[in-house]
Structures are given as structure tokens and as C-alpha cells.
Amino acid sequence: MMHYPGMVSCDSETCYYSKLPAFYFNELPKKAMKGVKNPGALYQFMANKHQITVGKAPMSVEREEGYPLLGREKEIEVYSSVLKGFLEARAAGHKNYNNVLIYEGPIGYGKSRLLAEVVYRTAKDGVRVISFELAKTDIKQSNYALQTLLAIVMSVQNCKSYAERERVLLSKILDSKMRQNLCLLNDILLVKFPVSKDVSLMDSQTKNKKMRNYFLELFCKFAEEEPCVYVLDQAHFVDQASWAFLLEACKRASVLLCMALLPHTSQSGSFPELSRIIKDPRTLYLNLPGLEPPVIAQLACQILGVVRIPSEVELFLVERSHGVPYYCEELLKSLYLGNLIVMEEVEEEDEAKDIDILFPEPTLVVHCSKPSQVWQEEDARAGALGPPKASMLKSRKITALDHFVDRALVCFVGEAAKFHEVPIPLTLKGMALAHLDHLQPADQMVVKCAAIIGHTITTQMLINILPESENHDKLNLSLTSLFKSGTFECGSKPKQFTQQLTKESECWGALNCYCVQDSQEDIREEVSGKASVDGVWRCRVMRFCTALVKETAYELWLKEQKREIHQKCASYLLKQAHRCRDCGIAEFIFGHKAAIGNNLIEIHPSLLNIQESGEALFLGQSTLGLPKETIQLNQVSPLHPNSSEEDEFLLKLDSRVDEYKTTVDRSRKCRCAQVMECVLCPMVRHCTGVGDVPKTFYYLLETAAASAFLSNNLKALSYLNEAKIILDNLKVGKPAFETADPKVKVKINNFERACVFRLRGEVLYNTGQMEEAESMFASALRLLNRRLPTNRVAVSLKYVCEKMKSLCCRSKNFDNPGEKKLAFLHEQVCCLSYMWQIGCMRRAPKDMLNASLAITMEMNSAQRTAEENKIIFSCIDYLQYCQLSGLDDQCKSYERMLCGNFVELSDCMEGLTLTSYFIRTLSIVKLCSGALHDSIQYGLRAEKISKLTNRRVPDMLVIAVLHTPLLLTQRYEECVQLMQSLEYQGNRTRISTAKGWFYVGCFDFLLYSGFAFRPFEECYTFVEESQSDPNLVADKSLMMNLYSALALWYARLCEWEKACFFYTKACGVTQQAPSSIHSINGVVMFLECHVLLFRKALVEHNQHIKAIYQSTQKHFTEFNRKYSTNKMYAPRVLHLRAYMYLLAGHEALATAILNKAVMLCQQHGNKLEESWIAQNQISWFGVFRQSTSDWFASTLTMPSWEEAKGMDPEELTHTRYTLMGVGSEIWADNSSLYLAPKAEDTQLLKGQG
């Protein structure tokens, strides 16, 4: 730089990303520069030759207070286990423990932050930690890592002169024999001890050996004195001589070594000692995976210092960061500096209208026992969740956000932001280009061609698009090299978390292949073989180890070259772009091709590859004509009430399920997930690269439908956003996307436009956003020529008209419509099915009329399809509609009719799916009617059938509902098993809402059963972390349950400040949550909160007691309006109403209502509520009294499930909460106050009289 002649200078960013120690740089004085207003800090690169240092290698990343490590809980848990084993083995005097723990991960995976957490936790446990970090230049200096390690062990790293180092060494080394050879430390620690006579007579080789033994002896001596953990970051920069020392030290000394490595560090063969350390049986080797999508959202909130991010930003980060924390950080920096995202202060939440009178200041707190240390720690964690006066986290990396410190922020999308046009940040592109530059030209060509294909590559497809000059031998050499360099890996490789490598392992499994070979078709275990055997490449499917390399290599092609190769890829994949054959339907959107015209999707035969067999990738399935299975009901008589009994139906159903299970287990394995990943997603990419708008739009919708089918809502929304961008561009006359020909006019027909709205509505419905979903379905129906009126009079007239059509349809036999019309009818039925459910959830008279119209229109559209399966589907919907509308007679009639018809269903996957839907609906209908035993019977069968249909989310929804009747009937063991199944599925499928419903069940156990299936702290932590997960926050029913549970927990403990916070949260969600079966549990808990707040007002002599009492009555009335047909919680609501009247001084009325609740409990089989009522009656009318402090003590001693499963349910009553009454002295102080009961409740008392 001209302003600093004669020296190498750089800016602060270059200094930071060089990853060199701080003493390599010296800050330069500021100078005025022409054209640069504020250049920032500048540094001179000094190199270490300008400064003699010993042990100066501090870790560049330290643990930051307030910024917890995200997504690495398993890795930390493994380390904690290893540390515990080390300390126990040391105390017992043996070496039977893991003494080396290695974290392996590519650049940017967070290895340094993980080691910083290790250092912090180890020091917190009182164990000495020696940590240091190496740089790239250190690998060239022999014994540098050894020198650093010894300097820190001997505590001489901060000494400024050799004399000071000598004094420290003499104070540390007291053994006379060892002092005789202190001169051996002269070269390694830069001291000047006198050379002994023995050492002076040694030749060079003998002296080096003597030095090595002396260092080992010294190291072992200090290792014996106190336990010590050695943490080594950037261990791939350790020199060979130091590796030899570490190998011997691990064998001889009782130490624990924790280090981080880049992948494939030892494959060059330069470090045999490192390979021996890794293959040692006592070494534990962990591969760091990418972060899961929910963690990416939390990390983004941490980096930006915001409480939440929009779903568009989360989608962008999940797609582009590929789970790599550093990529996420750089992408966020790029978005922020490009004004694509903006930060705004959090607006004050709309508090409940009665919040001031419910929680007046100052609050008279009911005295209770002093909280334990556990609760004090939990109190500290509560601050992070965001109580009103809590300070917010600062941004972690983006320094431009520093002026927002201590202010609550929310991230919003900037105006005119187009995330699909955001380029790869230069910092990331530079890393990928450096990797590509190290490859051979032939390997670079293979990588570039693979980048066109996508993230997952099949060997056969790669061969088809490579230049003809690439023969099989050359390709085998290139792929072998790319596997060893960490560019490619086997696409079938499982996500292994830990591994212990043996001496027979080669290159740490770099050439391992997990693809199923022809001879292993029936083998389901994950068996690894060699990717290359005798010069023949055997791996069928590969993938990029780093997505950044793929994206960068893709940009190296010229535009026309890309188009040509994309055309080849699209031609190759065309025959395989369909659902797997076991699902029985060719497309994810029924009749998609027929609706838009088959000729728009076909590729001309001259462009097709010679590939006739259509290898079917790694799916092992034929790509020739798919057999289309349909439900054959022609032999069944027309739909009419069936006389078979319910027990007979259950027996026949069990028999058919067993038959299904035998058939499915033997031959059916749904592979739609692999089809979506390896065929549909690449087809979108290749059609876009070719510039073919109709095909691109077709495969965008198919991929979005596949994602929705597989319950990947984020991915579905991503593809739907791309489809919307295409529609918006075409609407204003712009090219659909960059590669599209602007001269070609394209029009997307109404069917596909309707599919965009329908799929978006489905995703919104699944995440609880009912208002937005309803708008989407209404727009789809307009495009499908099945418009729903909005005016109430028009709705009434339309309803009468549709009812008349329905009567005509019953006596009319419709001809089979054409394929195009059938596709439209299927979409209509799907949209109308959601519309009536949304109407029933709102329960207002206008909404119920809309629901009646929608269900009638659905049944009419189903009749016009002339397909028995659609007719049955609409009848199942009508069954549930009748239950929700209180039409009990019609509900029973349709139930009998459907039971008769389902016994005759044929054995096909579509029939199995329809059966699953029917049994699941029956379970919900029985639950809502209060028939808990019947609900369990059907629910367990629905869960069993759901496993056979490969649809995991319906299975999760079944479990989320089914746990309620099991809990109410006190079948705790079955309930716990069901919740464990839900937890397992949530972890396996990585669906965060499944995990959310699991913790809702855990709160139910804590609040009502008297035992802890999961500790409260764990449940609280989940709610705390859920704030930054858009998927969880969007599900209003789920958040209603979680917030209400926490509000109730703290209200029972009389911790009103925390209760106020979660009460306010629950109030906000209540207005948005649908009145569905998934919300009712949270609403009932919220009701109990209101009653406890009424009691609080009485105890504190609140001047607004009457207003609070009337507000509580109003909430009961509102509950009855919304859930009048849902009777499963009727006993509990009566129980809480009786408690309210007991507090209000109406003891006789409370007794009458309690008697009615007990009667309902006995009718329903609700043992839990009956037991709780009996427990509370003893407290209200007997001698037992439970205080707040008593229950607080009970929460600390609440048994775990392991302890409770052998106990009788009645034994758990002592740890179950008791609703506390108020003493007569309370009413003595409020003698002039009269709280009138509701008129309908007093009628109950008169009736009993």
C-alpha cells in the first residue's frame, strides 16, 4: 500500500480471516487517505521472525456470555461423558477410558466455538485446561506444537525473558535427577541452562532421543500431579515431530486430549502418528453434521440480535447455508449490508384488556417457602425468554448492529428484496475457488459437470454428460481422488455421529460406499464397502461434501454450455419423474399432466438418451409403465346404513390390518422422499437451466406437492415462492426467470395457478395460520370455477341450491368425466375439505353457514367425479362435520354406513390410506363425544395403520390427539409409550412441531398426573428455544398449549410476575388459534389460569373483584360457544366452574355442578378427572388443606416416570396439585360483596332441588 511503503499491510477483515496469531500483526498509525473517508484499523504483517515467543498461541474464539452454543448438544454430551470417565478412571488408578476425543468438520462448522465451550465447561468443573490454537505456518516449524504445549504446562508462556523463564522452571522442577538435565530445555523453551557434561558428550542422534524421553518424563510427571485436559484447535497444523510426541504421551500419561481437525487430514500419508492416534481403540472420533433448520433460525436470531426472523429469511438460510454456521453468518451479513433485511424495534404486544386489574402493582404475594437452587437457576433462564424488563442479546458478529444494543428487535424483509438473486458472498466464493484450484484439471471437469446435476449425483448420469474423452478408467481415478480430497462422498452414507476406527480402516472411510449392490437388494442394514474395487467404480450415488463448492463450480460454466448440459440431464431424468410405484399414483398432483396438456411436458424422442432401462437411480424400481391401483367398489351395494355391529367391524378391521401389514412389510417400501431428492428437485433445476418455463412450473408444483406430502413445509413453501415469482414476472411482462427466452410468450393455465394457492393454503393450514389459509383456498376455488360467495344472503341462496343438487345427485349416475375435468374436481374437493373445517373452527353462525355450504359443495363435487374413493372421502368429512355441528343422529347414521363399506375395501395402497383417514376421523369423533374408550380403540388402530401408509405426519397428529384419552383414563404406561414414539419420530423426521406436541404431553403429565415424564427445566428450555423457530411460532394451537401450560404452572406456584408474562403471551395467541381439537387442551388450561387469578384477587382484596369475576364467567361462556360439541373436557370445565362458584361463596351451587361433573366422568370413563374431583372435595369440604408452599415442595420431589410406573395412580395424588379454597375470613372482609351466578347455572341447582 502506497501510504505505508516498505511493509506488508492489510485491513482488519483480512487480519481476522487470516486466522493467524495476533502477534503476527502490528497496528499501524492512522493516515489520511485520498478518497477513503474512514479506512478503519490497518495492520502490518510482521510474521513470527520479528518476535521470539514461547507458548503464545491462544485460542482465537472464546465463549461469549449470553450467546449459548446452538445445535451441538450431542457433541457436548459426549464430551461430558468422556470427561466423567477420565476423572473416574484417574481416581480408580486405571486407564480404561477414552483419552482422545476428536471433532472433525469442514471449515465453518463451528469447531472452534465447540472447543471454546469445552474449555469453559471443563474450567467450570474445576479441572485444569491447557488450550491453544495453531496456524498454517506452524506446520513447517518442527516441534512448534510441542514447544507451545510444554511452555503452557510449565507456565512460562507469559515470561518476557529467558531469565524469568529459568526462574519459573526451577520453581516447577524440584526433582534433583531431572534438574541435572535442564539444559535439554534450552532449545525448546529458549532458556540458557548450563550444559551438563553427559549431554555435551552426546552425538546429535543420542541427544535428540534423550531430549524426547526427557520431555515425556516431564510431561508425565506433571500429568500425574493433577488432572488436566488438553484442548488443541486447528490440530491439522501440528508438525510431524509433535505428533510423534503426542502419540507417546497419550500412551504413557493419564491425560485427556480434545482436538479439532479438518476432514481427511491424514490422507496425504505425511503423518502416520496421527493415523495411529485416530485408529487407537481409546480414541473417540466425532463427525460434526450441519445444523438442523430450526437451529439455523435460532443461530440467525443470535447473530442479528433479534427475537425472530421472517420465514422468507429462514428459507433462504436453510437452502443456501446448508447447515454451516459460518455460511449462515456471511449470508446474513450480505443480506444486512445489502438492505435486504431491516431491523426494527419490537412493538409492544397488545396486552389483555384486564391485565392491569389482574396483575396490579404492587402485588401482594402469597407467602411460600424459599426457592431452591434449582429454581433460582431456572429464574435466571427465564430472563432469556423475554420477560417485560429483560435485556436483549447483542448481535454476535455483525458489528454494524452495535447501535441496537439493549433494544428488542425483530427482523423484517426489506422492500423489493429478491432472495433468489442474492449472489454467493465473495468470502465464501474465495474459499470454494481455493479448493477447486488444488484439484487436477480432469478432476475439475468432473466437479463442474457434477455441479450441473445438483447436490446429489448418480454415477450413470455423470457418465452420460461427461465429455466422450473421459473413459471409465480416467473417471475412476478422478472420482477416487475427489473422494479422498473431501469433494465427494457416498450419497447413501448414513449420518454417523461417532465412530471408533480400527487399524484396518483406510483413509478414515473416505472411499467407503453405502449403496446397495445388486447382491444386497434384500439387505436392509447399512453395510459399507469400497467405492472402487479393482479399478471399477461401484458407488451408484454420490453427493458434494460441501454445497458451496457445487454452487461455485456451477458458476464457472458459460451460459450456452449450461443450457446444453441441463438439457441432457432433463432428458435423462424424464422417465423417472413420478411418484414411487408403491404409492400407486403417477403424480403428486392428481391429473396434473392431463389438466395442462401432456404435450407440454414430453421431451422430443430425438433428445432422449440411449438409456432404455431407466436405471431408476438407486431406487431399485422399474421406470416403465406404473400400474395405477384404484379402489374397486363396484361389487359393493350403494351406500346405505349397514347393520353390522361395531365389535364385528373392529374384528374385521384388525384382520384386514394384519393382512395389510404382511403385504406391506414384504413388498412395499415408499421411496417418494428419494424420488423428490434425486429426481424432482433436479428436474426443477435442469428445466430452469434450459429456460423451459412450462416444464419448470410443472416440476415446481410437483416438488412442492411432494414436500407437502412428506410434511416438509419449509421446502414446500420455498418452491411455491419460486412459482409465485414466475407468476408475478409473467403478469408484468417480464421473463419468468433469468434463463427464460423473453421472446417466447408463456401463459400458465388456471389449474396450475389454483394449485399454487391450494398448496400454499395447505402449508398455512398445517402450521395453524387459518385466516391466511382460508384466503388461499378461496382464491384456488375461484380459479377452479367453484367460487364461494362472501355475502351472507348469497351464501344462504347458494346453500339451498347446493342442497337441491345434492338430492338430485343421489338418484343420478354420473358418467366418468374426462381426465382434465376429473383433475379440476379433485382439486375442488381438496379445497372445500379444508374450507368447511376452517368454518367449523370459528363457530360463529356465519362461519357455520359457510362450513355447511362448503361440505355440501364438496359432496356434490365428489359425486360428479364418479369415483367411489372420492365419494367415501367426502362422506368421512361429512361424518366429522355432523359431529362438530351437533347433528348426532346423522353422525351415527354415516358412521354405520361407512363401517359397512370399509369392510369391503380392496387391498391397495389407496384403500389403506383411505382406511387410515376414516379410522383417524372416527377416533376424533368418539373423543369429541366423550367416548374415551372407543376413541382409544380406534386411535390405536389408526396409529398402527398410519405406519403402513408411510405418512408420518398423520401418525404424529394421531398421537398428539390420542394421548389425551389415554391420560384421562389413567392408562399412563400406554400414554408414555405413545409419547416416546412421537419423540422418536420427531427426532427422525426433524419435524419441529412433532417435538412441540411431545412437550405439550410432558406438560400434561406435570400438571395433572403427579409425575414428571420430562423435567420441567427441559420443557421450559424447549419453549424458550421455540421463540426463534418460525415453524413452531406459526402453529398457534401448539403455542397456545405451551404458553398456557407455563402460565398455569407459575400461577399454581403464585409466581405472578412469570405467570403474567406467559398469560399475556397466551392471550395474544388465543385470538389467533383455531377452535380445533388441538387447541382445546390449551384453552382449558387457560381457563384454570383465569379461575386462579380470580382466587388471587380475593386473597389480595383486589378492588376489581367483581369485574374479574364477570370476566371469568365470560371466558366460560365463550368456551361453551366454541366447544359446545366437544365433550371430552366437559367434566374438567364443570369442575373449574364449580371451583369458581365455591370461591364466589355459592357452595351449594358448586356441589351441584360437581355432582354433574362426577356423573359425566363415570359416563366417559374419565378416571383422572374423577380422582382429581375427589381430591379437591376433600380439600374444600374436609380437613385436608394444601398450601402453595406444600405444592411447591411437591414439585421438587415429583417422581420421574421410572419411579411412578410401578405406583398406583392414587399414590400420585400427594404430588398432584389441589385447587385451594379461601378461608371464611376472606369473605368476612368482603361481606358487602355479592357475586351473582349465571342464570343457567342456577337452573341446575333448582332442578336438583
UniProtKB/TrEMBL annotation:
Top-level taxonomic group: Eukaryota
Transmembrane segments: none
Orc1-like AAA ATPase domain location: 69-252
Matches recorded under InterPro entries: AAA_16, P-loop_NTPase, TPR-like_helical_dom_sf
UniProt entry keywords in alphabetical sequence: ATP-binding, Nucleotide-binding
Entry GO terms, CC: cytoplasm
MF (Gene Ontology): adenylate cyclase activity; ATP binding
Annotated protein name in UniProt: Orc1-like AAA ATPase domain-containing protein
